Amino acid sequence: MAESNLESMTRSSWSGKWAFILAGAASAVGLGNMWRFPYLAAKYGGGMFLLTYLVLVFTFGVSMLLLEITLGRASRQSVIGAYAAFDKRWKPLGFLAAAVPFIITPYYCIIGGWVAKYAASYVLDSPADIASESFFGSFITSEFSSFFWMLLFMAITFVVVALGVKRGIEKVNLVLMPALILMAILLSAYTLTLPGAVDGLLYYVKPDFSKFSPELLVGALGQMFYSLSLAMGIMVTYGSYLLPHEDIVSSATRIGVFDVGVSFLAGLMIVPTSFVALGSGEAVAAKAGPSLMFGTLPTLFESLGAMAPVVGCVFFLLVLFAALTSAISLTEACVSIVSDGTGWSRRKCFIITVAVMVIVGIFVNLGYNRLSFIEPLGDGSTLLDLFDFVSNVVLMPIVALGTCIFVGWVIKPKVLIDEMKEGSALKAEKAWVAMIKFIAPVLIVIILVSYVAAQFGFVSF
Length: 461
Fold this sequence. Notes:
The protein has helices at about 15-30, 30-45, 45-75, 80-85, 90-125, 125-130, 135-140, 145-160, 165-190, 195-205, 215-225, 235-240, 250-280, 280-285, 290-300, 310-340, 345-365, 385-410, 415-420, 430-455. By secondary structure, the protein is mainly α. It has one domain (about 15-455): Hydantoin permease, CATH 1.10.4160. GO terms for molecular function: symporter activity.
């Protein structure tokens, strides 16, 4: 199949199985691995959370990856066309799935811009300035700097997608993924040399079964679901580029291995280091999300003295690479959705996608300055919080639940099983069917109910 570029309407294809695995892993490895996984691991007893997460990834997670990848390859379409190819009555579910990457990509690029700013700051500014309490707040509320870094991050993402699947996405992943893993290993090794880091390491890797709780299970379940890029339209789109007879089962499993590996390394970098400075897992857990990434860690890096600029720059480059690989996947999914839905040239669909992303990104970013008076989810919330809530907390679980019902009860699992067996040895066929028909829907409902309740303060994760 001919390579896709901006001039061609011929469907793209991966050059081989490993190109697809790297792309899928690059999509799965993102900001959630870097700032949310370590916080959850610290909060829920370290080793017990790791063990639970591992079990969930290689049961529920890989099962859902198999479903989405196979749906894409069997239909040779992105999400809207994929559902319609099997039953046109379910096309509305495809539209819901298509909305997810269009909502996520603009605000993801805003956060990617934050990371790019910090990576550059460790070259241009002093660690003390970066660690100051006002640095992050002044940056995100600025009326120039925050927009500049968002647009720069978008520009890099869009250039890669413009080059197409083989010349752009494959080649960039071939560089960024090994570099990301190498930097994660080096930083992890360095952090373990810090005084007191061994106590943090033991807390992080040693399971304490007394720590297991329903809250831990829900936290690990939600992290796994969002980390693997499920229900974002990405895996269906990437699966549609996969050639017949490629081994889907082993590919999905390896994507899960990459996700677990990078998540583990992220925790290995952050939890022992933060443990040294803050003294306990609970103290680390209190510094969630942006507070951990852009507040606590720069303070810790400053304490490293002469090594602070090096460690800070390498760490934020690592996070930047992770953010870029996911943003590229999200943007590619959007371009593919527009192309499949309209039949227009890839060039035209790419330009439309870029225009939408830039306009929406600027609008969401205004929520930190000119539109900061809009607090859609209550006191202190921003437009970015609203977009995150609608996409991650509401739409993604609904799409995943609908997909399980669609495959498990409408078109029947055998349709996708036959496609999986083209090039794959599906040894756990009955277990996969049971997961899709019965277990996954229950787990997805738990995610949906729990995280909506958490958003409105009824529970805490």
